[in-house]
Amino acid sequence: MSGILLAVFSVTVIGVLCSIMLAVASKVMAVETDDTAVRLRECLPGANCGACGFAGCDGYAAALASGAGTATNLCIPGGDPVSRQLGEILGVGFVDVIEQIAVVHCCGHSGNTGVKMEYQGVASCSAVKQLYGGRGSCSYGCLGFGDCAAVCPNGAICIEDGLARINTRLCTGCGLCARACPNGVIYTNADSITTLVTCSNLEKGAAVRKKCSNGCIGCHKCERECPDGAITVVNNLARIDYSKCGGCGRCAEVCTTKCIQLASFAGIFRTEHNDKAVDSA
Amino acid sequence: MDFRALIIILLSAVLVNNYVLRQFLGICPFLGVSKELGSATGMSIAVIFVMLMATAVTWPLQMYLLVPNGLGYLQTIVFILVIAALVQLVEIALKKYIPALYSALGVYLPLITTNCAVLGVTIANINKEYGFAESLVNAFGSGLGFFLAMVIFSGVRGRTEDSEPPEAFRGLPITLISAAILSLSFFGFNGVIENLFG
Questions:
Q1: Bridge partners of residue A196, in order along the sequence
Q2: Do residues A103 and A263 make contact, with C-beta atoms less than 8 angstroms apart?
Q3: I want to staple B94 with a disulfide (CB 3.0 to 4.6 A). Which of A5, A99, B102, B185 is the partner?
Q4: How far is the C-alpha of A183 from the C-alpha of A129, rounded, in Å?
């Protein structure tokens, strides 16, 4: 009987000693793990893409938690929801995430520009581009066969009246369409831009007038009227420097051919057709 | 106990009595963690460390507590208890003082708690009636043997992952077959120690 008691006693003692040792060790050698960083990390998508400029999501969370005033709107994949969550944890206000978005620098649909030939070949922009620079009278603009729509992973692009239109609610700014466009009329830009030159034609004003009623004729009016000096006309085409643009929209007001448009993205680029696509999706 | 005897114990633990390839202990991490050289190395270093620590604690426990009191039958349960507590302690200490190593070892450290190779070494030390220093050398050698097997096998795994064996052999079967061939090749070390030092 004493044998079993001794066995139970010694195992118990060893167990208790071990547990005391572990308890003491966990107190003495406790590492102050930053709870905030862990919670911040849970909000982040975990893509480790590096878009925030830190070494992965862990790095960004640690930088945020360190209290050095790191901005909460740096996570591009997470977008606004993640920015809002980060702001709540840190107790700072919500900061809008500057997302990338694709924009079409052309407004030539069937209503304002014409065609120079009847094209019956392969229905693709890159094919039609081989024939005299496209079927449209303007060889700089949207070719209208939807090479961009074909590569878009989100179904955000559709062709309406021979012009590519981008649903900004579905667009993630990946830039695949910009690379697919043979004429290079699609660019990715920050979603905070307020005005957009919807023309890519580099010809002189008179030539542009003959081809498209909304083309940029290089009249310099926007350049003169812009209070921020953000617009310059280069090669007969107005270009907006968004780092200087204050977003007043004056250029869109004065534009002779209405080729500079207000890029209120709920407005001009989102057509009824696209809204239906969103609702059914 | 001379230096020569310790060398013999070390070499035979690494090559002749290799825990993974000759005694088939610790197969779980051998198959599970050997896909990449980096994690295989990390796991092996952790195993070496824990084997040494476990031997340093369990040998006195056996000799001065269990045997004198006639409690030899408690060996397994006491050893497991002590090894588990030790691994936890090592984990806490590493987290505090060497965070880099802690994050490198990651999940492998707690895994060692249930690694039968560690328990095997401590029990083998008792069964072979080694002294304390001999036990430590044996533990270190066993750990080195584990390291050697892991590193070699991660190289083999790299080749089998890239090659295209018949469909029935893909994945685990080809891994087990290559482990068996590697194990066979270690039989070549039979008698090496006797001929070197004998």
A1: A261
A2: yes
A3: B102
A4: 8
**Residues A16, A22: Cα–Cα separation, whole Å:** 10
Tokens of B126: 């008792």
Range(s) within chain A of domains with CATH label 1.10.15: 35-90
Q: Is residue B3 part of a domain?
A: no
* CATH class of the domain comprising A35-90: mainly alpha
CATH class of A100-189+270-281: alpha beta
Q: Cβ distance A273 to A160 under 8 Å? A: yes
Distances (CA, A) of A27 to A23, B53, B86, B161: 6, 22, 16, 45
Q: Which of B68, B63, B66, B90 is nearest to B78 (CA)?
A: B66
ipTM for the complex? 0.71
CA distance A27 to B136: 30
Strand partners, A101: A189
Minimum Cα–Cα distance from A21: chain B residue: B89
Measured in degrees and rounded to the nearest 5, phi and psi for residue B126 equal -70, -45
Tell me if A14 and B93 make a contact (CB, 8 A cut-off): no
Residue type for B82, please? V
pTM for the whole thing?
A: 0.53
CB-based contact (8 Å) between B78 and chain A? yes
Residues A179-230 pLDDT 10s: 899 999 998 888 778 888 999 999 998 999 989 998 999 999 999 999 988 9
Distance CA A140, CA A182 (A): 10
Which residues of A are less than 8 Å from B95 in CB distance?
Answer: 29, 31
Tell me which fold the domain A192-264 belongs to.
Answer: Alpha-Beta Plaits (3.30.70)
Distance from CA of B30 to the nearest CA of A (A): 29
Residue ranges of alpha helices (H) inside B62-129 are: 75-97, 99-105, 108-111, 116-127
Contact A259, A197 (CB under 8 A): yes
Tell me if A22 and B85 make a contact (CB, 8 A cut-off): yes
